Amino acid sequence: MRKPIIAGNWKMNKDVNEAVQLVNEIKRGVSDIDNVDIIVCPPYVDLSDAGEMLASGNIGVGGQNCFWEKEGAYTGEISVGMLKSVGCGYVIIGHSERRKYFGETNETVNKRIKAAIEGGLVPIICVGETLEEREAGKTMDVVKDHVEGALSGFDEGFIKDIVIAYEPVWAIGTGKTATPDQAQEVHAMIRKLLEDLYSGEWAAGTRILYGGSVKPSNIEELMKQEDIDGGLIGGASLKSEGFVDIIKTTSGLYA
Ligand code: 13P
């Protein structure tokens, strides 16, 4: 059975003081849970504190992006080694907001994933279609293109430990969640694609998360789908009650 993951993507929210408070609250709320991989991905400036507070325990820490070079004159960028040095074990790569606002492409996503894996971080690779693409019947083509582009040139041994997050752009921050059936359909397609590209065994063990307006009220139905192995949570991860609730519901389903 695939161990579920609940990851919070804080995006550009929470200064250091707010982050410390939220991390403390989450820590208290989930201290007894061991059947869910719990991850928080705060903004860069919060990572050092979060990493220290979560150095021991059951919550992992992730960055929201990383650059592919190790160091140098790249103003504004953060390296994989820097993320590791503050306790990160994960990094989100290719989020649709990066694709939309910051020129992220399949090629740059691919380079970041390579750097992340070589540096020892687990990449959480985001894929997903826009509303326009869905309405034009292109969902599967777009998702396939994102997955293939992200993994291009990598063999199975190299990507042993990766996480994929299906995040339909039209469901992000809109309150409009994909229905469990809609999400499951795409997740199953992604797993089939991974099976075609690599081995069935590897595809069956790889975790595929759903993201897009996940909240306490819809996590259960989503998690009951066969190919949904967790959630990448935005808005609902910014308040401890909601995030803890989502984690506990998930934990209960896997008990
Ligand atoms: P929301 O949960 O706010 O829709 O955001 C989802 C997301 O983009 C997580 O990466």
What is the name of the CATH class?
Alpha Beta
Oligomeric description of these chains? single chain
Enumerate how many helices there are, as a single number: 11
Could you give the count of β-strands? 8
Examine the coordinates and then state which fold CATH places here, giving the name of the CATH topology: TIM Barrel
Name its key features.
11 helices; single chain; 255 residues; binds 1,3-dihydroxyacetonephosphate; TIM Barrel
Question: How would you explain this protein's 3D organization?
Answer:
- It is a single chain.
- The chain has helices spanning 16-30, 44-53, 80-85, 96-101, 106-119, 131-135, 139-151, 180-197, 200-205, 219-223, 240-253, and strands spanning 5-9, 37-41, 59-63, 90-93, 122-127, 163-166, 207-211, 230-233.
- The protein has 255 residues and is α/β, with parallel strands linked by helices.
- The protein has a single domain, classed as TIM Barrel (Alpha-Beta Barrel), CATH 3.20.20.
- The longest helix is centred in the last third of the chain and has 18 residues, at 180-197.
- The protein starts with a strand and ends with a helix.
- The model has no long low-confidence stretch (mean pLDDT 97).
- It binds 1,3-dihydroxyacetonephosphate.
- 1,3-dihydroxyacetonephosphate binds at residues 9, 95, 167, 172-173, 211-214, 232-236.
